[in-house]
Specification:
The protein is an all-beta fold and 800 residues long. The protein has 2 helices and 60 strands. The two termini are 31 Å apart.
Length: 800
């Protein structure tokens, strides 16, 4: 696996130079380990796999970091401080900042640990570990404070920062400080409530102080530690701010005779509604939006629309009409907020609608909602936030990719009318390729309601069903049941469409039903004939499964063509498939289930998902038949190395993972020269370069597990390979319970690996015949590596 570190910074501003009462102050700016520090290294894989300097600091330019070893070598790395002179200390404390991965260290994986301890060279006492922090966020900087009062008066203690694990992730350490615990502590929990021109600042003080200093500036300003205001109260209001502007502030406690604290902050606030301007858009974004009885025309291909110049009246406790037209061609998550308390924040409790549009282009989403009966009367800001996928969870401040945001002003009024009540449903007339909408009116309200689609109207003569239509099959219509005299009490009925089903596709052209030997790894073109009668399909759903009865069919893809390109990706596999034509969103019914079977595994792979590694041609330096020449020690499955060979010389190509499928090609990957599992011996037929492929299985898969690719050459390799082949026989295959091995000479070692390369069984028979008990293993394919007279042979066995 590859692990990428994303760092989020949150900190308390502090001095970086030594001051009175500090016994250790290290920011790792010069080196790691710094002067006076030591590192106990157990991992020799390179400087980044133990404690080293990294350019992802908490403060300054550098930090100390351990990265995980992708070769999955166990790591146990100590970074040890200089001896601490605490003879003059009374209440010393340790402070440091760190970040690491909760995902890989705690839950769901427990692959590595960060432990802090203190030692006098003889006795080591644990002080803290990452589990003491509880739940924390991946790669976020956290400050830890530890009381060292128990060591006041000593002059022989050292701090030990330890990384332990296998297949973990990175750990970063910075700003290690041992100091006298200050009598005036920094404040915490900075906050702000804002208007357009002012902010009410507040914080939590642990000292009982009555006065504080603040430093305020535009967001991103460099703090000077010189207050912009002194002796302020908590909370404190600052005025004369500029609307729609980001600010930051810091706070310092004034503890009178106990001095002042370090500065806490920054806390950032914004004098206005948060900006929400997505960086990109699908298609043409939003089309027209109808809010209440007002239509807002889109200004085009933009990611933010400001419609606040026009205020729309919406009734308290009645349905608010909201129709949003999308021109994206994708489903869009849609959320609507109204700032009922006018605090410039769209709170979670102010979310009035959530839903998702269709992917049709264009499509209209009925986002109508019932205005809460308790909604505050008057004018409020309303925001519509939409995106392809970035709005989960709902984020009124979303400024990521692929989205559109729109702002409105709404005036909530007490309705002076009683709205009608009705439900509506589609009534299809497929014989005539049309449909109606049946509107069932259960309350006429206090008006004279009529149904309208914006062009035509249908009079409601009384309670019961009034039929609107007809509308052409395949078209969309938006209907409103108008109050008749007051638009506040209009009832949006919704957006409706109908698509009558088409007929099923004809028999497949290729692969034919029951076809065998289909290429397992190449691209195949599945083709079929369109229905010869009925409605012309608008597209086709392609369903794929592996059960003969079709019970596991799933929607694989959709196409407007009568062909589709795909790759099976597996050998000896029977694929069941069905082509289901659509008219709009309506599928044909009763369509046939067809099948085809892919060809057997060839035992070799000439593909390489990860390409060539290393990038240059490798030439073996020693050809004595016994000395391995390591090509790479950090190779991956699904890549290849290029190796120089000489005609007539015998080569043995090896992988450190015994179950790897090895393929050799002497013509640049066009054809196979030799292949096998774990190790391949081949006598070169030409002088030049060969491709040496490694794959984790015979399905030509890939992985990122580290392995060594090496080559032996010269000596008696060809004779040895012939000897091992003739010294070992085995049966049965497939095996149900016991695999029997017969050797001409002593069988020294037997190791069994699953398809993931994990060792599941090992035994050392030291006899010429061995019975390997496999009854406890799950059914599947296994690789058995047998060592006879110091020569290895790997066989593939199927367990039933």
């Amino acid at each position: 696996m590859k692990k990428i570190t994303f760092l989020i910074y949150a900190f308390i501003f502090c001095f970086s130079s030594w001051t009175y009462g500090q016994y250790l102050n290290e920011g790792f700016e010069t080196s790691v380990p710094p002067a006076g520090w030591t590192a106990n290294i157990t991992n020799t894989g390179g400087p980044t796999l133990t404690w080293g300097q990294a350019a992802n600091p908490h403060t300054g330019s550098y930090s100390a970091q351990v990265e995980y070893d992708p070769a999955l070598v166990p790591q146990n790395e100590d970074l040890i401080s200089p001896v601490l002179d605490l003879t003059s200390a009374t209440t010393p404390r340790l402070r440091f900042w760190f970040n690491m991965s909760y995902y890989w260290a705690v839950d769901p994986n427990d692959n590595y640990d960060f432990n802090v301890s203190i030692t006098d060279g003889t006795t080591t006492t644990p002080l803290w570990s990452e589990t003491d922090l509880g739940l924390f966020t991946n790669w976020v900087w956290y400050e830890i404070t530890i009381d060292l009062s128990a060591y006041a008066g000593t002059n022989n203690m050292q701090l030990v920062f330890n990384y332990t694990g296998v297949d973990g992730a990175s750990l970063t350490l910075d700003d290690v400080l041992v100091e006298e615990t200050p009598t005036c502590l920094p404040v915490t929990d900075l906050a702000a409530s804002v208007t357009y021109t002012s902010a009410n600042l507040s914080w939590t003080d642990p000292n009982g102080a009555t006065a504080w200093n603040i430093e305020l500036g535009a967001a991103g300003f460099t703090p000077t530690q010189t207050p912009t205001e002194t002796g302020v109260s908590n909370p404190h209001t600052v005025g004369s701010l500029t609307a729609n502007t980001a600010y930051q502030y810091y706070v310092q406690a004034d503890c009178a005779t106990d001095g002042t604290s370090t500065w806490a902050g920054p806390f950032e606030f914004y004098t206005g509604y948060c900006t929400s301007v997505p960086t990109s858009i699908d298609g043409n974004g939003l089309g027209d939006i109808v809010l209440g009885a007002t239509t807002f025309n889109s200004s085009g291909d933009v990611t933010y629309e400001d419609y606040t110049a026009t205020t729309v009246d919406l009734g308290q406790g009645v349905t608010a009409n909201l129709m949003i037209t999308y021109q994206t061609g994708y489903t869009y998550e849609t959320y609507v907020w109204i700032d009922f308390n006018d605090n410039l924040i769209f709170d979670d409790t102010e979310l009035v609608y959530s839903g998702t549009s269709l992917a049709d282009n264009p499509t209209t989403l009925d986002a109508s909602f019932v205005m809460p009966a308790s909604a505050s009367l008057g004018t409020h800001r309303m925001r519509i936030g939409t995106s392809d996928f970035g709005q989960t969870p709902p984020d009124p401040c979303y400024s990521g990719g692929w989205g559109v945001t729109a702002d409105f002003n709404v005036n909530i009024v007490t309705p002076a009318c009683s709205p009608p009540v009705a439900t509506a449903a589609v009534n299809a007339d497929c014989d005539n390729l049309q449909y109606y909408v049946d509107v069932n009116v259960t309350d006429l309200g206090d008006g004279t309601p009529i149904i309208t689609d914006g062009t035509s109207t249908w009079t409601v003569s009384g309670l019961g069903v009034t039929q609107a239509g007809p509308f052409a099959d395949g078209t969309t219509v938006t209907l409103t049941l108008e109050h008749g005299s007051d638009g506040v009490c209009d009832l949006p009925l919704g957006t409706f469409s109908n698509y009558c089903p088409t007929e099923c596709a004809e028999e497949p052209i290729w692969p034919t039903n029951g076809e065998t030997g289909v290429d397992p790894f190449g691209t195949i073109t599945m083709t079929w004939t369109a229905p010869s009668t009925g409605i012309t399909p608008t597209s086709y759903n392609i369903y794929i499964g592996f059960m003969p009865d079709g019970s596991d069919l799933f929607l694989f893809d959709n196409t407007v063509d009568t062909f589709f390109e795909a790759t099976v990706g597996a050998t000896d596999s029977t694929i069941y498939w069905s082509i289901v034509p659509l008219n709009g969103t309506t599928e044909a019914t009763g369509c046939a289930l067809w099948s085809f079977t892919s060809g057997p595994a060839p035992g070799y792979c000439l593909t390489a998902d990860w390409g060539q590694y290393p990038g240059s041609t490798f030439t073996p330096s020693t050809c004595d038949g016994t000395t391995p020449n390591d090509i790479v020690t950090d190779g991956w499955g699904g890549e290849y190395s290029v190796v120089a060979v000489t005609s007539g010389v015998t080569y043995q190509f090896n992988s450190s993972i015994a179950t790897d499928v090895i393929t050799i090609s002497a013509d640049g990957g066009a054809t196979v020269a030799a292949y096998g599992v774990g190790s391949v011996t081949w006598t070169a037929t030409t002088t030049g370069a060969v491709n040496f492929y490694t794959h984790p299985d015979d399905q030509c898969g890939s992985d990122t597990v580290g392995r060594t690719r090496s080559v032996l050459c010269g000596g008696d390799l060809s004779v040895e390979d012939y000897a091992i082949s003739n010294m070992l026989t085995y049966y049965p295959n497939p095996v149900i319970n016991t695999l029997t091995l017969n050797g001409v000479k002593t069988i020294q070692d037997v190791a069994v690996y699953n398809m993931l390369g994990q060792e599941v069984l090992r035994t050392k028979p030291n006899t010429v015949q061995a019975e390997i008990e496999m009854s406890h293993l799950q059914a599947g394919t296994y690789f058995v590596k047998v060592t006879v007279e110091n020569s290895n042979k790997t066989i593939k066995v199927v367990k039933k």
